[in-house]
Amino acid sequence: AASQSGTASLNDGSSTVTVPITAVDPAKAFLVFGLEESTNSPGNGEVTGRLSGGNAVVFERTETGETVLIRWQVAEFQSGVRVQRGSVAMSSPTMTVAIAAVDVGRSFPLVSVRNSGGEWAGADFLRGRLSGPAGLELSVNNVSSTPFVEWQVVEYNAAAVQHGLVTLAEGQLSATVPIPAVDLQRAWLISSHQSHFASTTAIGERLVRSRVTSSTSLVFDRWVSSGSVDIAWSLVVFQDETLVQHGSEHFASGEVQRTVALEAVDPARTIAVGGYQTTGGS
User: Fold this and answer.
1) What is the pLDDT of residues 53-109, one digit of tens each?
2) Burial letters 75-98, b for 16+ CB under 10 A, else e
């Protein structure tokens, strides 16, 4: 595989930014990205990303206030990987998108959502999961503001993928999920969740950290237990030469950046991802 990476900025006054990239085959490449922002508005802070025509990545949001910094990476494979992608406006809380049939045991979804509004609520948290070989199920709590989703489904021949659903019920801070034993150095956990918010506006109830804590267990946790969240997860266990490093970091009050030491990697063949959709952690 080969990877490209870069940064982009959605500046105050802009709702979209297009970044040129070295041309890739869209059917063999996928996009991951993360956001750095300081906003309490999902209209400004929720960003979707997509590959466009194989030679650009496009990032969009519904409103134009404040600045959001985007760090993106595109991974392209010579063979053994097939990627489908698309866009959908959510007209009902749960929708199933038809896809070309995949091997669910070797495939995983990547989703991002953008939405309007001034409060992080039920329409701002998206759960995406493979409902079967030919269906991608997308779920939000409500569609009063018509959330817009960009999705990718990656079929990776040299991987075994476990999938599951877990709920953090109201009053519950964490859940441990047992799994068949995996090699931690080859395991990549991907999750997304749907939020059923309580009367509080606490973001802590709606942000979930997802971790592979041992070769036989996953842990999903948050800081505030009001409301409930329904989580979909995919654990990708690579069967080729791909290796994974992972960990969890705590940011102290006033701390905005941390540098984590890694075992040396080739940046041109490496991607860095974390947590839920485009933001990770609790």
Assistant:
1) 999 999 999 999 899 999 999 999 999 999 999 999 999 999 999 999 999 999 999
2) bbbeeebbbbbeeeebeebebebe
pLDDT of residue 265: 95
The DSSP result for 141-202, as a single string, is S--TT--EEEEEEEEETTEEEEEEEEEE-TT--EEEEE-----GGGEEEEEEEEEE--SS--
pLDDT of residue 281: 81
Distances from the Cα of 83 to the Cαs of 76, 126, 271, in angstroms? 10, 20, 17
What six digits make up the tokens of 84?
């489908």
Instruction: Compute the distance between CA of residue 129 and CA of residue 138 in angstroms, rounded to an integer.
Output: 7
Which residues of the chain, if any, have pLDDT below 70?
Answer: 198-199, 275-278
Residues 156-168: b if buried by 16+ CB within 10 A, e if exposed: beebbbbbeebeb
Tell me, yes or no, if the pTM score tops 0.85: yes
